[in-house]
Amino acid sequence: MEKLRTPDERFRDLPGYPFEPRYIEIPAGDGDRLRMHYVSEGPPHGDVVLLLHGEPSWSYLYRKMIPVIAGAGFRAVAPDLIGFGRSDKPVERGDYTYQRHVDWMKAFVTALDLRGITLVCQDWGGLIGLRLAAEQPERFARVVVANTFLPTGDQPLGEAFFSWRDFSQNVPELPIGIILQTATVTELPPEVIAAYEAPYPDESFKAGARQFPTLVPASPDDPATAANRAAWKALELWRKPFLCAFSDSDPITGGADKMFCERVPGAKGQPHTTIRGGGHFLQEDKGEELATVVVDFIRATPARA
């Protein structure tokens, strides 16, 4: 598998991101291996909070949340998905599939032997993370979903999604920073926009970001549909704590929280919240507030088998 690795100098002195880089190698799925980057802050043996980003962001998205979670005595673990951030970036778009993303993240969790996990997932972080929780429930203690969903292709995804998918496939250069700015409510400083663009020196590094929108199951015969339906069946039996913390200004996933609340038993009676003043990337707009919601939720819901 041909892959690229973003030069380290592009990550120097990023605003608000002082975290030590950590790396682990995982199987690529074709006999090769890939290097995955992650942040791990807080007590090494503290309860794990796994922070999964989506498209086209990277662990930089969680920079406001990591200190709050670590400061509360928990271990904040924020990986970069393969193709994003400081992780390796396969060159061929065909190397990226939904199943491979799930397998790569499962390999990451297994390699670090993470247990008692509180999953915090947004955007594609939910499409991948919820599959992990459904398929390896013994490793997860609770779930926080934020501006995400788990599509099977059985329901229409909405005009906003298809507009985004068409744009992502047809724009000559994928404008990572502008995409982040468009999907946030607050105005991002130029240096923050540059930080989001840091992993991608040129278009050849963006194969993963280009491919993600095409991997969302949009029809019942999608390759990922069967596995996602199976995940929903597992989630419909999920009785561990499950919290929705969606923002009020996200045209892509608005309303998906109601589906989780209705279908996941562990969501019953939980203090679901709507975070005001947050766009799709609510970690950017309201990161500290979302982190506080996560910390309070963990403290209020002791882990159970």
Secondary structure elements and pairings:
Elements: E1 3-4, E2 22-27, E3 33-41, E4 48-52, H1 66-71, E5 75-79, E6 89-90, H2 98-111, E7 117-122, H3 124-135, E8 140-146, H4 159-170, H5 176-182, H6 190-197, H7 207-215, H8 225-235, E9 242-247, H9 256-263, E10 273-275, H10 282-300
Parallel strand pairs: 4-5, 4-7, 7-8, 8-9, 9-10
Antiparallel strand pairs: 1-6, 2-3, 3-5
Compose a concise summary of this entry.
The protein is of the alpha/beta class and 305 residues long. It is built from ten helices and ten strands. The protein has a single domain, classed as Alpha/Beta hydrolase fold, catalytic domain (Rossmann fold), CATH 3.40.50.
**What is the domain total for the residues?**
1
CATH topology, what is it called? Rossmann fold
- What does the largest sheet look like? 8 strands, mixed
N-C termini distance: 39 Å
Overall geometric form: globular
Q: Quick one: CATH class?
A: Alpha Beta
**Strands, total number:** 10
Tell me the strand percentage band. 15-25%
